[in-house]
Design goal:
Layout: H1 3-23, E1 25-26, H2 29-49, H3 55-78, E2 80-84, E3 87-91, H4 94-116, H5 126-148
Antiparallel strand pairs: 1-3, 2-3
């Protein structure tokens, strides 16, 4: 699949997730963890297929992933987690969007620095960056949900 098409598809999916969370939605474990795990897996897969990666590239990737998880967890700390209709719900707040903006700036700066210092372009898959950010958020929100004592929302029925 063309890299731009994949990036556009991932951006659309991320936008849908953000809009749903802005309105507020029931919090269930599958919806919380599956998208970031899939995106992170796709990013790792893209790295495995990349040619010419060096040990230095991999250090940049690992540090970038840790930074992405930390910024995602910070974003997750701003998400409102509350009980509604006997189950957990989540909603993005104004502070969440401030953290999103700050995270984008920090990660752009990190990517610029990495590229200027020789990191190969194919060592920066977009899906990995988005996946680890959402994974950090999911861990923070999931932990807060568990600590609340309110049950997670049940899984939605799948259409057949």
């Amino acid at each position: 699949m063309n890299g731009w098409v994949l990036a556009a598809l991932i951006a659309v999916i991320a936008l849908v997730v953000v809009v749903k969370r802005l309105r507020g939605e029931p919090l269930n474990a599958r919806d919380l963890f599956v998208p970031p795990v899939v995106l992170t897996g796709l990013g790792v897969w893209a790295l495995r297929k990349a040619d010419g990666l060096t040990g230095t590239d991999l250090v940049w990737v690992v540090v970038g992933c840790l930074l992405g998880i930390a910024l995602g967890a910070l974003r997750g700390a701003t998400v409102q987690v509350f009980g509604k209709e006997g189950v957990l719900w989540q909603r993005y707040t104004g502070r969440t969007f401030l953290v999103i903006l700050g995270s984008l700036l920090i990660m752009a700066g990190y990517g610029f620095l990495a590229a200027r210092l020789g990191m190969h372009a194919n060592a920066r898959p977009v899906q990995l960056s988005i996946g680890v950010g959402f994974l950090g958020e999911a861990l923070a929100v999931g932990f807060r949900g568990l600590a609340s004592g309110i049950p997670f929302a049940p899984e939605r029925e799948r259409r057949r």
